Amino acid sequence: MAHARLSPSNHRWPHCPGSVREEAQYPDVSGDAAIDGTGSHLLLELCLIEEVRPDYYNGRIIGANHEDKPDGWLVSQDRIDRVWMCINYINRRKEELLAQFPGSVIDVQVETRTDPGGMFGREDWKGTADVTITVMIGGQAVYVEVVDYKDGRGWVNAEGNSQLISYLGGQMRKWIASGPDMVRPFRPERLQGCRMTIVQPKTTPPIRYSDVMPRDVLTDLEQLAKAAWATDDPDAPLKSGKHCTWCKHKPNCTAQSEESLEVLKMTTDIVAQDGQSLFELIENVIGDVESIDTQRLTELADAEAGIQAAFDRVKAELTARLEQGEQVDGYALKPGRSSRIWNESEDEIVKMLKARRLKRDDIYPPKLASPAQIMKHPDLTDDQKAKIEKQYIATKAGELKLTKVARGQKSELPFKDVAQSTTNDVPSFL
Asked: Which of 181, 308, 332, 408 is the most exposed place for a label (fewest CB within 10 A)?
């Protein structure tokens, strides 16, 4: 199914309005990992709709004739284990919510279309929520939770997640919006609470959530609506950042280079006031950096990003010309360091390794969870977390490194309020 122009699963458009325009030039093709994840989503959907256990499908093909994988997905034990984790969480939440709201009805919906954009008069901002849990009392919702299942390994935060905010806003809409068009004025007080949850079995902890108030969700939706309107501008700007990671336009994007070069231009103007160009100063650095005053050193440090961006663009252009067959004196395309990869799907490799009597921990080596991950674990009480924090967690200062700060700010060694670790041992309470 084609994604909406402003799909909630696209985390770029809220930060880079121009990315919507640029990415529209490229085909919407799902990668192998995404296609494999679709199989797990499908298994979850079948189990919740048909009210069966995931192992009911063990060794069977599901999703035959699916547009992403016409041959369907062979259900393996590993996929069953991952989906079980999500189903167990949903069952546990039903029990918790029944205890929290006695006499209520818990409604669980799967693969539900959600339309947050409609709240603001937009038809291009909508998506599909994996699981929605709604607590009903007397025909009125009092609590809404959206659960997003992730089958990959890239750690996803539940807090401030624009995808979850969009899903939750769309699911809240029919309970808090007004009139037949379900728009303003909104009445968030009709709901007592909300939760946004990530279930991601291949990460630690595998379940993460953020409890939010309905009014705060609306505030976040208003900000997303402003970001949506910004994408309508034909000249919407490109903004670089962490959101660029999976952007289709990234190899051809000039945003980061242009931003860095603006810094380079300003720095060049400052340096050139005494008649010495930036590049003459660089020559002096190579010869005798100790003789350069601190002001000039900081100006050169400021210029680093711009200089690096310029050379990145030069290398990219040389690579493109070599790929087109042009001869470039002194440069050639040669294979980098090779790596060994599996030549079958993950399910096939896991099946093969298990047949050779390897255990799950051998196939997916675990590691000790970090203090931050443990302190977010839903199965720990506040008292338990407080005791763990006091008895087992210390703060280890990072190594000193050169860091850019505001002009005029004095440099101080950051040792006053930070406990220093004198051992490399990591305490274990598991």
From this structure: 408
